[in-house]
Design a protein that fits this description.
With about 475 residues, the chain is of the alpha/beta class. It has five domains: about 110 residues, no CATH class; about 35 residues, no CATH class; about 150 residues, Rossmann fold, CATH 3.40.50.10140; about 80 residues, Transcription Factor, Ets-1 (DNA polymerase, domain 1), CATH 1.10.150.50; about 30 residues, no CATH class. The protein is about 50% helix and about 10% strand. It has 20 helices and ten strands. The strands form three sheets. A five-stranded parallel β-sheet has the order 5-4-6-7-8, with helices on both faces. The chain has a three-stranded antiparallel β-sheet with strand order 1-2-3, with no helix packed on it. The relative contact order is 0.06.
Length: about 475
């Protein structure tokens, strides 16, 4: 008994009994049979019983007859091909009923997988779908593998690009501010007010990011305040010195002034000094090397002495602005000033007095019960915490127009009480040290309790130099 053979030219060669050929056709056309085919299967059993006697003769006739080939065609063209073959043969032996049923079942739906036919028909065998379509399964696995590889490549490329961007974009180094404002921390209200107004006008002339002013740097309450000032003094390219009697009596301003003069003498191109004489000092207090700068300074003590702070500022800015611009590097405009909050928020309680803004000061005065008339006087003068710390009773009468003695006394008492509370705070040990009046031939050492041994050894060495030493430790 022979089985159907699939040839290379997309044909099926059929041999054997109708029963065998019917079973093979059902295996190939799994799930594709019609209702008529099911009836044919039932009739096949009956026909086999009736023709059991003729089985051997039928097999002999089929083996003697030439092998027929069934072409693999589409369902739509199958009937036309059968009719054309019948017409071509002319004489066709009348098959018996079993042969007719077998011929009907031989309509096999197998579609050639060619590029011309985009639709694929799935054929299932007794093993698996992958077995019946090995190429498609392989292609599917390959597609999955390729897609996974592409995803991994994309992920790797994203990671590499992120790491490269982190390495290729270094953090921009903040540029040093090249114009230093040197003034006396012990200056009075008018002098401080002049310095603040001068800095404001200079920044409005596109020098906002080039000027180093400790008030705007917000480090006046820092333990490193003096070291920050000296670092700016040593690295600046230009300096504006506001000279006065307090400038030459304050150790901080006097020391940084000497440093600037030494830099200018050793290398005139290293720093440019712009001296401004705000008030005449005592000639005894002025060091000899400052005499040259006093002669070339912008004098505000002569014809400009009776002018307001804003007018004096305009005189100074008009004289130095053109030359000062040569030492600027960034030339940026100041940030827009935000209007004061219409509602009080209580933020001033979290700040020190030196950090209060003008709106913080107004809220503080409101909580003290100061009338709006007097509060408006300080607001018009743009008094903030920096100026409040230098305010005296005489300044409030002369420059702010606060004639009520009760109001002035209340404000001064509250300022002193607030400063006293700040100095008693454990973290403000450096503020307490500033309040000490230095004495000649006395060294003040402020140290952390953990460094007590180092401080004691340093004290012994300094005493060997005939110096008096005072030790103060930082309370935690």
């Amino acid at each position: 008994m022979s089985n159907p053979v699939v040839n290379g030219d997309d044909t099926i060669q059929v041999g054997g009994t109708p029963k065998d050929s019917l079973e093979k056709s059902l295996d190939i056309n799994m799930g594709k049979t019609t209702d008529g085919d099911v009836d044919n299967v039932e009739n096949r059993g009956q026909t086999d019983n009736k023709n059991a006697d003729h089985k051997s003769s039928t097999e002999q006739e089929k083996m003697d007859s030439p092998k027929t080939e069934t072409k693999i065609v589409d369902n739509e063209d199958q009937q036309d091909d059968v009719n054309s073959e019948d017409g071509a043969n002319g004489e066709v032996d009348e098959p018996d009923e079993a042969q007719e049923e077998a011929a009907k079942t031989m309509s096999v739906e197998i579609k050639d997988k060619s590029p011309k036919q985009p639709d694929d028909i799935n054929h299932f065998d007794s093993v698996s779908n992958i077995k019946s379509q090995p190429d498609k399964g392989r292609e599917h696995k390959k597609d999955v593998r390729i897609s996974n590889m592409q995803k991994n490549e994309k992920t790797d490329s994203v990671v590499v690009s992120q790491t490269n961007s982190n390495h290729q974009t270094p953090r921009l180094k903040k540029m040093k501010k090249g114009i230093f404002i040197s003034y006396s921390p012990d200056a009075g209200f008018l002098e401080r007010r002049f310095v603040v107004e001068a800095v404001r006008q200079l920044k409005e002339n596109n020098l906002a990011d080039d000027i180093w002013f400790d008030k705007d740097e917000k480090n006046t309450d820092s333990p490193c305040w003096f070291s920050m000032r000296m670092e700016a003094v040593e690295k600046c390219r230009a300096a504006v010195l506001v000279l006065s009697d307090s400038y030459f009596t304050c150790p901080v301003s006097l020391y940084e002034g000497k440093t600037l003069v030494e830099r200018s003498v050793s290398d005139p191109s290293s720093v440019k000094i712009f001296p401004v004489l705000f008030r005449q000092p005592d000639p005894v207090d002025v060091p000899k090397h400052f005499s040259v700068f006093l002669d070339s300074a912008i004098d505000l003590t002569g014809e400009h002495v009776k002018k307001s702070a804003a007018e004096k500022t305009s005189v100074v800015v008009g004289n130095i602005m053109e030359e000062l611009e040569k030492y600027a590097t960034m030339h940026t405009a100041p940030l827009p000033v935000t209007p004061p909050d219409s509602e009080f928020t209580g933020e001033f309680r979290k700040k020190k007095i030196c950090q209060w803004s003008a709106s913080d000061l107004q809220e503080w005065l409101f909580n003290l019960g100061i009338k709006e008339f007097y509060r408006q006087s300080l607001a018009e003068a743009m008094v903030d915490g920096f100026l409040l710390m230098s305010l005296t009773d005489h300044d409030m009468v002369t420059h702010l127009g606060i004639e009520s003695r009760v109001v002035r006394k209340k404000i001064m008492q509250q300022i002193l009480q607030t400063l006293d509370r700040e100095h008693k705070h454990p973290d403000n040990w450096h503020l307490r040290s500033r309040a000490l009046r230095p004495k000649p031939d006395v060294v003040y050492i402020i140290y952390d309790p953990a460094d007590v041994r180092l401080a004691q050894n340093l004290k012994v060495d300094l005493k060997a130099k005939n110096l008096q030493v005072r030790l103060y430790f930082k309370r935690s």
